[in-house]
Amino acid sequence: MSNKAVNVGVGIPCLLVGGTEIQTLNLVRSLILDDYQVNVICYFEYDPLMVIQFENLGATVTLLKWDRAIGALSFIRSLASKLREYNFDIFHVQYVAPGALPIVSARLARIKKVLATVHQPKTASHGRFSGLILNVASFACTTFLSVSLSTEKSWFGDSHLFSLKKSYTKAPKHCTIYNSLDTEQIDFQLSQLHVASPSKKIRIGTVCRLNYVKGVDVLIHAFSLLRKESSANMELLIYGEGEDENRLRNLVQELALTEDVQFLGKLPPLEVVPNTSNLDIVVVPSRFEAFGLYAAEAMYVGKPVIASDSFGLAEVITHGETGLLFPVGNSQLLMENMLLLIQDSDLRMKLARAAKESIKSRFDFEDYHKSIGKLYSLMSNSS
Questions:
Q1: C-alpha closest to that of 216 among 244, 250, 256
Q2: Based on CB atoms within 10 Å of each CB, which residue in 11, 115, 240, 274 is the most buried?
Q3: Does domain 3-180+364-380 have CATH number 3.40.50.2000?
């Protein structure tokens, strides 16, 4: 059967600006390049600019605009009814809240091939039964994907990196296909930038949603410690918005850092690379991170990155070779890493060069495209 005759649905809770949406864009782009018909089903919130990005790829986008307060049974029945209308051959669930409910809906709609991608590692915050629920849900799927080996292992107890070199007779029940970057697009963006005048300040920065998980408070505390250890002319630039913004602004005031810390708001997707290119040091202080897409992006832009050693970040970065890692939540060791890079410009350049090469060789979109193509071919050709 030609891929043009295969109708694929991709279910996602929201279409805002974040790592899950970027990974979903890569998924949809891969499928459309392979001539699948793709309809993205968004259950809840959406950003019109993100919707346009999916449509520009050639996907149909269906916005259900449901309220988050919808009950589980109503969600399952309503989504199952919608899925029957579209008659999908394959339904790909982005497994974030509401978790397993879309998988149940797909099975009720009698979709033969269902797969899911989990975008968060299992942590204590998920509760006692989350692992059991996901594992049960995986039996209802043809295959269950993770975005990093550590994320897969946190849910299933073991992990397997899907390989282009291995011959599979059928799709694995669960495996990892790493997130990817469109390095050609980043190269193009960088080529269009005007060479900025060198700044007299060392610019340390991060781009993320401002919530507890992203650990920006850890970075602010570390920057406060750095101010006491170094007389260097430096500033901290924070790009993003979120529910913790007021708390973080108050923390900056309490630590008397208002002259040195700037909150610069959320960046549109096309502004991430240009603004990252103006930073001297990038910090990703997340309390947990399934993959660490922004860390990988900053590394490919050619920036030295310091990140927490949380789950996927420790797979993206090799400490001392392609970046620096510090224990989750440890402001003191984060400060020491920042101080090391401030004092050693040669190390900054060495890490930046190695980081760019590493990302190109391990996480380029072309390899991701081939892996998704191989996996979908295994599913499409199975009974």
A1: 244
A2: 11
A3: yes
Closest by Cα among 379, 371, 378, 291 to 33:
371
Domains 3-180+364-380 and 184-362 share a fold: yes
β-strands 90-95, 174-176: how paired? Answer: unpaired
Q: Is 250 helix (H, G, I), strand (E, B) or coil?
A: helix
Q: Is the pLDDT of residue 1 over 60?
A: no
- Taken in order 123, 126, 129, 135, the sign of the CA dihedral is negative
- Report the alpha-carbon distance of residue 83 to residue 343 in Å, rounded: 57
Q: What is the dihedral of CA 364, 295, 275, 272, to 10 degrees?
A: 60
Residues 6+ apart with CB under 8 A from 125: none
> What pLDDT score does 212 carry?
95
User: How far apart are the C-alpha atoms of 143 and 122, rounded to whole Å?
Assistant: 18
What are the domain boundaries of the chain? 3-180+364-380, 184-362
CA distance 314 to 86: 40
Q: Are 157 and 132 in contact (CB under 8 A)?
A: no
pLDDT at 195 over 80: no
- Collapsing DSSP to helix, strand or coil, 249 comes out as helix
Taking the C-alpha atoms of residue 89 and residue 112, their distance in angstroms, rounded to an integer, is 7
The pTM assigned to this predicted structure is 0.91
Yes or no: domain 184-362 corresponds to CATH 3.40.50.1820? no
- pLDDT for the residue numbered 268: 87
Query: What angle do helix axes 19-33 and 293-301 make, rounded to 10 degrees?
Result: 80
